[in-house]
């Protein structure tokens, strides 16, 4: 039931006054009296943990919930990427985005070609994400996979990093996975091992990263809507169709290449039937699938290579046989951990993984840090260049990145309410670190993420990244320029913009493809940029029109904006009350289906035609 205006205002005012009441002790005492929690925890802490300040004087969240036993960790979800008790933190820079899980693993998202995860979680295929480490002396074992059994396991979600600390009987372990600030497609994993015994010790560390892809395929979304299988299963089945060839990189590590083994005849037939069903029975949400333009596709079958290397010492063992390593023990207790890695690479198969071993000799009560580099290789990057760069800088990556994050962006500080500064710092990090690179447009983009990207596989609508970019007008205008160029390249010959992009440069087949307000948002955003920066030369840049019917067409930004304006005035126009028209009209439907998602229709009168600005989305 929708709240009344009074209830809404009361709730809004409550949020606005919360900090003042907290500082007066009113909210703290009331909360403590009813829940028994320690009211001295920083404002904004929760059942899942509390806010802290890390060693770099930046905000971080110490996650303390044991999600394997605490019922409060359960969220009812449709089957998909996350389990009901999984909570994630974003570790990213200007290109790479990693989903760091409360279970300890990390999945890396990469958008060149099309949006995808490079290391899916698929236990049946011995695929467990990545960023997992295992320490053993043959008797005692510590793992950075969280299964709830070790009460000393600490998890810290930081700005640009994910930290896991574990204490055992004889050893302790501190693993940090960090995204170097900037545009490199890599993560640095460093593990600090401490010997708490009064005698020397020799231990082995095994670093694991998986390699099964999971594409956010809109083709799978269409097939699912047409009743040809669950969307997540279809996408996972596609990932299983890739075999893996893993080779050595000198004595430093491993390089993985993927090969698509092809689809079955039944899978191809299902896709053709799904398209035929859409043509015969439009569902009001997805339009019939048109022939694809050259160089575009719903999915990509030529995937980038991935690699894992040791940065500060030679490996003492390697393996690509993830199935044998994990065995029946899974990520919490790998079956073959007590045996050194056999230094043998199996013939590429679907059960492959990247496994490196380092041997560490520790003096009594000594600590040592070892470092690894994981990444992927889009066009313009070479593995040996990346290795050389981070061999020199790996020891300072976390410190240097944190220092840069402190300097970047705008800050808002209210001395009487310290949580405000924390929130503005944290929100800036989450916004900027969600940037990825789209090689079809050749630009960075601030994707909406969430349901649009991770469920639908959908980059849209243009109004969203245009809004997301606005906070960077005065701090990082280059981000704004990239988002503007991306959107300008979408402008069609009539001045309209597609509602969304899927796969590699495919205009999403949406019934709402020609929403009325999209060019208006582009006009607004460019105006804001020019007014804020006085960069009028930007208007004279030439932009390739990627969706023009005229081959190799390019125009100045000034001309593209004029085309958008004329489209807005002449094609969209205004109604009898001077308000911009909504172009997309749909017959009333009780519901619109998008896979398992139900978009509830608006009911006014029987048979009355209704108008959607978004064609039924975002209502």
From TrEMBL:
GO terms for biological process: carbohydrate metabolic process. InterPro entries: 6-hairpin_glycosidase_sf (IPR008928), 6hp_glycosidase-like_sf (IPR012341), GH65_N (IPR037018), GH94_Enzymes (IPR052047), TAT_signal (IPR006311). GO terms for molecular function: catalytic activity. PROSITE patterns: TAT. This is Uncharacterized protein. It comes from Telmatobacter sp. DSM 110680.
């Amino acid at each position: 039931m929708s709240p009344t205006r009074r209830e809404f205002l009361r709730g809004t005012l409550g949020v606005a006054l919360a900090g003042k009441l907290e500082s007066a002790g009113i909210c703290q005492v009331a909360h403590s009296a009813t829940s028994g929690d320690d009211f001295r925890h920083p404002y904004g802490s929760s059942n899942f943990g509390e806010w802290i300040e890390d060693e770099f004087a930046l905000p971080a969240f110490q996650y303390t919930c044991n999600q394997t036993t605490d019922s409060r960790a359960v969220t009812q979800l449709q089957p998909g990427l996350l389990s009901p008790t999984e909570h994630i933190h974003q570790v990213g820079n200007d290109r790479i985005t990693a989903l760091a899980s409360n279970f300890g693993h990390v999945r890396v998202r990469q958008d060149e070609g099309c949006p995808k995860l490079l290391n899916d979680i698929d236990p049946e295929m011995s695929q467990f994400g990545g960023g997992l480490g295992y320490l053993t002396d043959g008797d005692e074992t510590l793992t950075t996979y969280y299964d709830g059994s070790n009460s000393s396991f600490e998890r810290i979600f930081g700005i640009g990093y994910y930290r896991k600390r574990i204490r055992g009987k004889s050893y302790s372990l501190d693993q940090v996975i960090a995204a170097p600030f900037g545009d490199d497609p890599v993560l640095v994993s460093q593990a600090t091992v401490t010997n708490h015994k009064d005698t020397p010790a020799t231990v082995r560390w095994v670093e694991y990263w998986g390699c099964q892809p999971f594409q956010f395929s809109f083709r799978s979304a269409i097939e699912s809507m047409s009743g040809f299988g669950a969307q997540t299963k279809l996408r996972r089945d596609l990932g299983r169709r890739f075999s893996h060839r893993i080779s050595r990189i000198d004595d430093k590590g491993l390089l993985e290449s993927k090969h698509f083994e092809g689809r079955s005849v039944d899978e191809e037939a299902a896709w053709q039937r799904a398209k035929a069903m859409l043509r015969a029975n439009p569902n009001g949400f997805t339009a019939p699938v048109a022939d694809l333009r050259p160089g575009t596709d719903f999915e990509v079958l030529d995937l980038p290579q991935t690699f894992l290397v040791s940065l500060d010492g030679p490996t003492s063992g390697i393996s690509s046989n993830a199935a044998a390593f994990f065995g029946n023990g899974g990520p919490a207790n790998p079956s073959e951990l007590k045996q050194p890695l056999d230094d043998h690479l199996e013939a590429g198969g679907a059960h492959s993984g990247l496994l490196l071993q380092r041997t560490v000799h520790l003096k009594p009560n000594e600590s040592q840090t070892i470092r690894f580099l994981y990444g992927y290789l889009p066009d313009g990057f070479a593995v040996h260049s990346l290795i050389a760069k981070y061999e020199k800088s790996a020891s300072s990556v976390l410190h240097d990145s944190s220092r840069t994050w402190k300097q970047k962006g705008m800050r808002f500080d209210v001395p009487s309410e310290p949580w405000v500064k924390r929130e503005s710092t944290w929100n800036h990090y989450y916004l900027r670190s969600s940037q990825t690179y789209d090689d079809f447009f050749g630009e960075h983009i601030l994707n909406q993420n969430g349901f649009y990207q991770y469920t639908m596989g959908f980059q849209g609508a243009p109004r969203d990244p245009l809004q997301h970019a606005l906070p960077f007008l005065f701090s990082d205008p280059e981000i704004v320029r990239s988002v503007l160029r991306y959107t300008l390249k979408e402008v069609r010959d009539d001045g309209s913009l597609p509602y969304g992009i899927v796969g590699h440069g495919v205009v999403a087949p949406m019934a709402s493809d020609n929403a009325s307000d999209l060019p208006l948002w582009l006009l607004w955003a460019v105006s804001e940029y020019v007014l804020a920066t006085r960069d009028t030369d930007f208007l004279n840049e030439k932009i390739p029109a990627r969706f023009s019917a005229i081959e190799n067409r390019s125009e100045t930004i000034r001309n593209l904006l004029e085309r958008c304006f004329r489209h807005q005035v002449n094609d969209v126009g205004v109604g009898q009350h001077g308000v911009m028209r909504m172009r997309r009209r749909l017959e009333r439907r009780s519901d619109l289906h998008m896979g398992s998602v139900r978009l509830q229709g608006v009911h006014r009168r029987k048979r009355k035609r209704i108008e959607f600005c978004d064609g039924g989305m975002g209502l």
